[in-house]
Every structure is written in C-alpha cells, then in structure tokens.
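Molecular chaperone DnaJ structure dump, as promised
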Amino acid sequence: MSNTPRDQAASDKTKLNPGDQAEPGTPGTGENICPECKGSGRIGAAACPICGGTGKIIEGIGGA
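structure tokens r here:
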C-alpha cells in the first residue's frame, strides 16, 4: 500500500497533540484555549508541547 499525498494529508489532519482529548470534529468536543501556553502557542522561545504550537486544544464539552 503506497502513501499518496491524499493519504498523507488525511493523516496530518488527524494528528493529535498531547493536550487533545479527541480528533477535531468528534461529536461532543470543541476547541478551547491551551491551558499551558494560554493560547499563545509558545512556551518561552519554543512551541508549546501541549498544543503543538497552535494555541488550541480539542476537549469534551457539556455533559450530564
């Protein structure tokens, strides 16, 4: 099985960062500001290890 650019794009799209609780678009989840970097995407001069430098995480919302 070969890895086409389309396959690579799909795998890049579903890459989770350590702070993510689910893949983007999962029902019952949403974006939130990263609690570690406060949304800046940086810790000092480096990319935030929790959000991968995006400043956002995916987490569960709501609940019963």
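Residues 6-11 have pLDDT under 50 and may be disordered.
lmk if u need the other ones
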